[in-house]
Protein 1
Amino acid sequence: MAESGTRVVVAMSGGVDSSVAAALLVEQGYEVIGIMLRLWSEDNGQAGQACSPHNRCCTPDQMQDARRVADLLGIPFYVLDTRELFRQQVVQYFIDIHASGETPNPCIACNRHIRFTHLLDQALALDARYLATGHYARLRQEEDGAIGLYRGVDAGKDQSYVLSILNQHQLRHVLFPIGEFTKTDVRAMAARFGLPVATKHDSQDLCFLADGDYRRFLRQNMPQPASPGPIATLDGTILGQHTGLADYTIGQRKGLRISHPEPLYVVDKDSAHNMLIVGTLNELGRQELTAREINWISGVTPLAPFHAEAKIRYKALPVPAHVAPLSDTGASVRFSSPLRDITPGQGVVFYDGDRCIGGGIIERPHANSD
């Protein structure tokens, strides 16, 4: 049971996961406050068609659902306007990183700057001890006193990848109430609590796009308009012309509009020369990368290289890797075999079994070496 009088702010979205997280905390005796974030979204005029002007994470219907759940649970509910901060820290980051030739994960940026910095600060200012979310992940106190971050029990829903940015201060003030359960369990609990969102579908896609078309969004918002350029092989042979580097991602095969005896894939983007580099499936694979902005969950940079499992995308399978810290915030990673789709701007996250060791941003893959 919770300590008497322990106050917790729950980040509510109107979905089943955060609603069950709030219900569990109420059941456990916490003093719960629900807060929903109002996030920035482009309007219909920018998208050029009739579609929702609201961020998909906080539509009026979702706000109404979150408020209904809060009323049912008997907890206070507030909406925090973070539109401008979200625009600066997540949307502009998305634009800027694409402009540099990389492909970012905006959910990582949102967790880093919005949920677990700004919202956590707001929770602590309300004299709450914890901020709770509906993420599928688990926390555990280690033998040395540090708080460890672990995969959620439901392997298909585990979200430790996008939580790898959390530091020890944040981990000591967060709760993940549903991390010990599967999605099926969570829906069953929602029905048991009588929550009106028990069968609600999960949200998908980039939440701030009016129509889900990120290529159209980037063409309209990048500082320099996307311009066509050459498509070339690794040896410099020009095969055609691309429509703008932001329209492509590493590993892409469809939409290249070039003719070649073998299937070709995007293997690199040379933003300095506005050139899209393509190659065969064998040329696509890379075995090494360097990463920046590494966050070590324990708060301590490893003193020596180590073996771990690593994920290079949220839905990627973990693979064996040799990780060598280059500095407090950098690392070199060599995989046991070449991987497709190593994409600059995406996260690379390290695991020891179910324990998340840390992660960072992929800076660049390296040519294979013997």
Note: The chain has three domains: 7-134+177-193, 226-282, 284-366.
Protein 2
Amino acid sequence: MIRKAVIPAAGLGTRLLPATKSQPKEMLPVGRKPVIQYVVEELAAAGIKDILIITGHKKRSIEDHFDEDPTLQNASPELCPTASSMHVQLFYVRQSVPLGLGHAVNLAKDFTGDEDFVVALGDSIIHAAKPHELLIRMMKCHRHNSAAATIALERVSHEDVGKYGIAALEDDSTEVSRIIEIVEKPQVGEAPSNCAVAARYIFSPQIYGALSRITKGYGGEYQLTDAIQLLIRDGLPVFGVMLRDDEKRLDIGGFDTYFEAFFLLALTDPELGKHMLNWVKRWLQVIERQCR
């Protein structure tokens, strides 16, 4: 069982300004909880015990959110989550300069040591009845194939391939397949497939050797995707695990996907979902009349 995970959460969130001017995008509420709480809960449910959160400028509220709060000591764990109530240990390190996801993951080297570890992006939610089951499948794949890297993938429209890392698979008709190429945010028409990286990874310590060899890539940053491509070129086993039909990655990277995520979780809320659905129906009728 993999014990450790890394949550990169140092991005500036400039595409979500002004909402992120004074708070991290990882702390934006989606439904009832901030984004990063969904991620920590997913990792805890998958059996992860130790989690390193990579923070940066103006990210102190992430630490505050998971701390014990004496003024809320009588609140339930659901209303006042802490690391201890989720049975995990949280550790923090700062990425003082935003040099990319590859640089951020490299900061975890001392934390993960010689163990395999999960990387779960702090601005992406896996929406499913049991979100942690994706990581469980990834862990089984990783162990069974003695993989250097195992990556969650989902199919996106061909118009959206330029937003993500894109992987080409040895066999794209199966749920699990070896990855033969991966590229960061390719141009539409140049992408090797429409299989996008879905914000969850498992790595062996071999990733650090690859990270030490990359140079700045897309956007002038050190790209994790470039290090994964080096593993592939070295002939090391890198596998992709497809999200199932009932699993959806919610990317809180811009207002379009943030609105979609909040809307979806509001509509599926066990207590208020039906009310929200009726509210939306009424407003759609109002808007339709106004547009006539």
Note: The longest strand covers residues 176-184.
Protein 3
Amino acid sequence: MADKTYKIAVAGLVHGHIGGLLNNWKKFERAEIVAVAEPDEALARSAQERYGIATHYADWQEMLTNEEFDILQIGADNRAKTDMIVAAAQAGKAVTVEKPLAVNLAAAARVRDAVRAAGTPFLTNWPTAWQRGRRTLMRLAKDGAVGDIWQVKERQGHGGPREIGCGPEFWGWLYDADKNGGGAGADFCGYGAVLSAHLLGRPESVWGTAGNLTKDYEISDDNAVFVARYPKAMAILEGTWSQQGGDGVGYPLVYGTTGTLSQAGQQVRLDRGKGSVEMIDLDPLPEGLTNHAEYFVHCIETGTEPEGILNLETCYIAQEIVEAGYNAARSGEAVRLS
């Protein structure tokens, strides 16, 4: 299969990350983007011109029925993508979506069940999977560089989707909790949730708080903090649509019984205390596996499941954490995971 050219069909163009994902496919010499399904004709026309896509459908179901392709790349909102994933998996298509796995836990369960039943390749892409600093830090943590991990802290965010210049096709659904799954917590706490799920597994309980602290327009939350509690560890997960400038902290932070890991520019900082600080150069990205497109084709051709924070079960646990965090924020009490 090493000489096979994969035909890529695209369902939805409203996710702000879709341009980067399509660039990955366009640069991959063994892929051809053959069709796009998007009801917004202006978005579709722009994508067709930019990526050389020959065929446009207004409806993704029509594309799934009539178009010949190998991989479905989804760029829809978090709610809409569930039906797309399930239908494509049942049709025997490989499917990749941008994070998170789904809009809520019920939808995540539908996706997981459909993918497992069909046995089709599936990948939820987290952009942090391709950041060398985070990859190196995760490897060191998993290899025991800081002993037993007792705390993970992750913070992700910016000043807000509209404020940083995202298009209305993107922030329009990000600000709609029914389509996004929440606000800043759904957008950004998931990064910490999938990291803690990878490093620590499934927590016992989750506490959370969330609200609109700074925006003069109505959204569910522009800031959220979720705390996942493990038997001998905790993960503090922060998401914000309010932050101006940086805070100088090298997130994520991993605290262990023998040291602390953080990012420091183009290196990872390993502090074992008593003046023992080691600056570790970043691991290179594996040759031929430098982005989601290359990696997904590798998984398809080797018959292997995505690993690390891209693993389906890990992404499902991350969804559990985020949903429990929101439920805890509403109830004022920590939520135990069954």
Note: The chain has two domains: 6-125, 129-287+318-336.
